[in-house]
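[INFO] parsing input record for 3'(2'),5'-bisphosphate nucleotidase 1
[DEBUG] input buffer:
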Amino acid sequence: MSLTADEMWARSSFLTRLVASSATISEAAGDIIKAVMTDGDLKVINKSAVGQPIDVQTEADRAAQYIIEKSLQLKFDNKLTIIGEEEVTSEVERRESGFSTDVLALEDRLPAEFKAIKPEDVVVWVDPLDGTSEFAAKSRGREPKLNQVTVLIGIAYKNRAIAGVVHQPYYNGTESRTVVGIVNTGVIGLNVISQFDEKVVVTTASHSTDAVKKAIEALEKANLADRIEKVSGAGFKVLKCLEGATAYVFASHGCKKWDTCAPEALLVAAGGTLTDISGRPITYAANVQHPNTGGVLATAPTVNHDSYVNAIPDDVKAFLPETPVVTSKQ
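[DEBUG] output buffer:
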């Protein structure tokens, strides 16, 4: 006899409930993102300091983060540590209290250690709109590639990414999809590709540097990159690694923890790997510095991650040193 949704919730551990709620909340954030786009007034601002590269923020970023944080805290009695990209948010009336029964169905596969996790044990990293440069492309005179826009909710435990939700509001035109992964448990929402006809490496479309170019050239020389694709958003790049690309390379410190926590958990749950450029794990403690100062290197399931690490030139690795965890909570 199958269980009802409420019965599945009642028998599930905190982590499974958190991920199941995050999946549905990410979809509510996606609805808000679409509504802002339909309205047409994105209210674009540049968050960067004078002299720094442009860092675009829109009303969709601000409103999506608000609903994510408020919905999660309401669902879990304000017990969560949530770190989001946007310091300033825009209030919206909606709260999402639903949950994904597909995620709750993973409960029996959850490792025993994960079943014992409590709210105070986790850090939730939120990027409400990853790929803002594409979302706001029309404001800069070009047609947006909206399939590259994602909502990211990552969950870290003992400093490591263990669960991730990646929602695509514009997966196929107006159609959306939500992909969820829990480490050592499974992935739902897509079919993972682990056999490759060619080595496709995805990299940044908007933040290229000399180090990025040098890393890509080194991979081509080592016969680890037959084709390069430049796309936006860490979430979309990792989805590409699950659906046919072999690696994602970003030899720069422009990526943040909220960009990589959810995608890393999703990729690892599928059998892939995500580290910094030198092969070091990325730390997701509440008191860690937000930039991924060592860059990002991700490889698809069945791909030899070390071969990509070893091919990155030493001077590129030296340019991207690991920054230690800071001592005060942020």
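[INFO] The chain has two domains: 5-188, 200-319.
[INFO] shutting down worker
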